[in-house]
From TrEMBL:
SMART domains: HTH_MARR (SM00347). Coiled coil: none annotated. GO terms for biological process: response to stress. This is MarR family transcriptional regulator. Pfam families: MarR (PF01047). Residues 14-148 form the HTH marR-type domain. The lineage of its organism: Bacteria, Bacillati, Actinomycetota, Actinomycetes, Kitasatosporales. It comes from Streptomyces cupreus.
Length: 178
């Protein structure tokens, strides 16, 4: 794409920004892959993604979970079956409607999400520490604008109890008991 002048007079090169973001996304994918390395024998990235959704949403119906993951319910069911077999999730009858089944994390599933997220946070922090304070501020401003443009909610602070959905922000209302 050609460069064009913005109202402030600065050059706006969408291709250069796109290339920089693609490069950063490769780095972040590599960090994500390394953070999953300790559990990769029993957990794929899509399965981890499901664990994160269950971690942030709590007990969830299969159809809602499939919608959140943007997969077919049959695909979600196969993933759930594998997570249950690994001891990371379980099914329970909905106390408000015994015909419905809710899916939720086990204690081991919650520990897995916390451990992987902690490893990811540690590696990202090590990279960020290599930046100058000015570069850090510029990165915060740029990534905040980028995330807002993409509709991604902010990640929690280090001391927040709830894990971050890790890049799968989807505005789908989920009723936990319905």
């Amino acid at each position: 794409m050609p460069e064009r002048e913005t109202p402030t007079g600065a050059m706006d090169d969408v291709d250069a920004v796109t290339r920089a973001v693609l490069t950063a996304s490769r780095l972040l994918v590599a960090v994500s892959a390394r953070s999953l390395a300790e559990v990769e024998e029993r957990l794929t990235l899509p399965q981890f993604r499901m664990l994160v959704v269950l971690s942030t949403r709590g007990a969830t119906k299969l159809v809602a979970l499939a919608d959140l993951l943007q997969v077919a319910p049959s695909t979600a069911m196969r993933m759930v079956d594998r997570l249950i077999a690994a001891g990371l999730a379980d099914r329970q009858a909905n106390p408000d409607n015994r015909r419905e089944t809710l899916l939720q994390l086990t204690d081991e599933g919650r520990r897995t999400v916390a451990d992987v997220t902690s490893r990811r946070r540690t590696e990202i922090a090590a990279i960020v520490e290599r930046l100058t304070p000015t570069q850090r501020l510029a990165l915060i401003e740029a990534l905040t604008a980028f995330n807002e443009a993409g509709g991604e909610p902010p990640a929690p602070a280090l001391d927040d109890a709830e894990p971050h959905p890790l890049g799968w922000a989807i505005d789908v209302p989920v009723a936990r008991d319905a």
